[in-house]
Amino acid sequence: MSICIDSYRKLAQLQQRFTYVADKSISSLCKLIVITGFFLFLIYLLLSSRSLESSTYLANLKQRWLPSNSTSSVVDRSPTNISHIVFGIAGSSNMWKDRKPYIDSWWRPNLTRGYIFFEREPTACLPWPTTSPLYRVSEDTSRYKEFNRHPMPQAIRMFRVILETFREAQKGVRWYVMSDDDTILFLDNLVEMLGRYDHNKYFYIGENSECVLSNLDNSFEMAFGGAGYALSYPLAKALSKNIDVCIKKYPFLYGSDHMMQACVADLGVSLTHEKGFHQIDLRRDVSGLLSSHPQAPLISLHHLDTVDPLFSAMNRTQSLTHLMKAAAADPSRLLQQSICYNKQRSWSISVSWGYSVQLYEGVIIPPSVLQIPTETFGPWRKPGAYRFNTRWLPRNPCENSHLFFFEKVEVVKRERVVSWYGRRPGRRPPGCPSNAGDLLKIIVVSPATRCGEVGNRRECCDIVDSAEKNTTRIKLRTCLKDEIIG
Fold first, then answer.
1. What are phi and psi of 106, to 5 degrees?
2. What's the Cα-to-Cα distance from 267 to each of 156, 271, 316, 441, rounded to whole Å?
3. In the Cβ-directed half-sphere of 237, how many Cα atoms lie within 13 Å?
């Protein structure tokens, strides 16, 4: 009997302990739930009170903690390359036969992406060559007839090229580059330039006309489409959504470029100036401009069919092909100016790499003067005033420079680039006293490295002895620290 009583007491004690432990565990669990709920509530209040920042906050959390193969959206920070750019080209089916060589000079089949938009089917040019950009016929714009009071024909059609280009290609696109069918682009420099900007922000990149009057007629905040301009993806998307609004809002502006600038301004974006874009609103001989190019990569040229051939011994097409040989060898150095001196002979030499060398004798001209273009050209229309300083040609023809123009280029063992420049008849007449009259060629040796990074100085150069008869050799180099030229 006593055994049964003892067993009963032990069982009661165990039950009591179990009940105590269970009650304690439930109490701890409840406390944990309350504390967790309290912290979750605080996080909710924090996020809800920062509604403008909450999406960015959550996105940062996702980017930090989710695995790299997650389907979440992650900003691509890889370097910009040609595949990230889509070209929208405003063309004319009537002019395509004459304009095609300009596009062919820079278009890279199976590499460049883009479309040329015609006002009608280019039946005379069919079958369409696979080496050219894909073509499209612009959409009918007759529904905008009441808003078409533009002096420039087809302004609305050309303005809508950005919308039609955006609809054609969006995947993997960072930049949309708009141009005309007579625009020449230098792709390596274009890619390098765009790579300096954040394509996730709103950018409108281009340049004004060379002529003040052209800018007054439009806007000094306008990029000229003949020179080409670049729109970042977010800006192109915003424009595409507001094209109709801007067409109806601005029925009186001169042309498509001004409509674009006005619409971009209404989106809160201003023009970012890049000096390498060239509208070439000029006439006659533009060698004076190209021989004193700004300190910026050459991005584009335009209106080459309205100026003299770039090389006087060639026609326009041959000249462009010739210039592209220099561009292929060293695009970053193309037209970049270097200045050096032979003070014993009183020579001042200005090198425009891949294009020309000018040799002035009898006087030491400082770089601050030589970097100013010589006015060998005239304005697009009179009265003429330029957006940059110019130098007049000297009254005494014997004070003109000896002119040497690009002949050929060679890359040597990927270590240096050698380019040759041959004498051409210039404005300096025979019979002028000279100690450089027997000079027939100038050889320029440059390092096989990229040139012209933002913030760097122009390259310096030295005139060195040459074993070749009637030849002078120039070596380009990085300027010494604190070195002053001249």
1. -125, -15
2. 19, 12, 40, 54
3. 12
Q: Which two tokens stand for residue 211?
A: 């002529």
pLDDT, tens digit, for every residue of 122-180? 999 999 999 999 999 999 999 999 999 998 889 999 999 999 999 999 999 999 999 99
How much is the mean pLDDT over the chain?
A: 88
Place of tokens 């301004």: 265
430 pLDDT more than 90? no
This prediction's pTM = 0.84
pLDDT at residue 467, as a whole number: 77
Cα 77 from chain centroid (whole Å): 18
Q: What's the rounded Cα separation, in Å, for the pair 335 and 352?
A: 5
